[in-house]
Amino acid sequence: MKSRTLGMALLTGMAMLQPVLANAFTARNGARVNPVNAAVFEVVPRGGGGGGLYWCGAADYAQRALKAPWQARVYIARGLGPSETTNRRSAAQFTLDPQTAGVTPSAPSLSINALKVGDSMTVQQGFAYCQKQVPF
Question: How far apart are the first and last CA of the chain?
């Protein structure tokens, strides 16, 4: 009886994870990209690294999953911090719609590693960092 109860609990737990796994996207550099809400998505790289990992993941997701044009701007909605969609310690959140996400666009930072809220670049600029990354 205990094994049956444990089995049912395991199946229930797996069923609850299904929506998250179904929505996950793997960028060309191996980063996972998960929707946070209708306007925001989170980039979670496999390991530590610079801002290029995050920009690549965001641009790749915007272009391939959201079908954004190359000249669309990708904005940082939340800088580097703990992931809201996984148990990873490092993630950043992005949006294509800063107004809906409650983000005030700012002048672009001189450093891709700054990952400051409001920073942006075009999908094409972000995708260029995918060419500079070595996949995991």
Answer: 43
For residue 1, the model assigns a pLDDT of 52
Alpha helices in the chain (DSSP H): 2-23, 51-60, 98-101, 123-132
Q: Could you give the angle at the alpha carbon of 62 between the alpha carbons of 49 and 75, nearest 5°? A: 70
Predicted TM-score (pTM) of this structure: 0.80
Residue appearing with tokens 């980063």:
31
Cα–Cα distances in Å, from 82 out to 4, 42, 58, 68, 91?
36, 10, 17, 26, 6
Task: Give the Cα separation of 98 and 81 in Å (integer).
Answer: 19
Beta bridge pairs of residue 64: none
Contact 77, 38 (CB under 8 A): no
| Tokens describing residue 30 | 């191996």
Interval 75-93: pLDDT, tens: 999 999 999 999 999 999 9
CA distance 108 to 38: 24
